[in-house]
Amino acid sequence: MGSGSTYLTLTMLVIAGCLICNTKEVSAQCGGSLPDLISQCQQYVQKTGPKIKPSAACCAVLKQFNVPCACKLITKEVASLVSIPKAVFMGRSCGLNLPAGMHCGAIVIPPAP
Q1: Do 65 and 37 contact (CB within 8 A), yes or no?
Q2: What digits encode the pLDDT tens for the residues 81-94?
Q3: Within 13 A of 5's CA, how many CA atoms are on the CB side?
Q4: Does residue 108 sit in helix, strand or coil?
Q5: Cα dihedral sign for 72, 73, 75, 80?
Q6: 40 and 90 in a common domain
Q7: Are both 91 and 73 inside the same structural domain?
């Protein structure tokens, strides 16, 4: 490997490292732990099955997130993976302030039933 390709490889590693750090910083701005959220809450937002009141553990993890900040990160792709009505039900069941008309990514929060 010549010195030119060594510098190119090093530059690519530095750029990749910066991108990873920035992603963590952006993620850290919203608080919470995404792996914990998935492990504790995924069963409550699945597209199939009935609405189920979330567990205390799920609510505890969910309440660690800054909802307006997290809403900015929700893309159509993310929204397509879960049941939005169940996600809103889960959030409201956990006591989160999700007012009707609030925008969360491309989703507009519906009125409470």
Answers
A1: yes
A2: 788 888 889 999 99
A3: 2
A4: strand
A5: negative
A6: yes
A7: yes
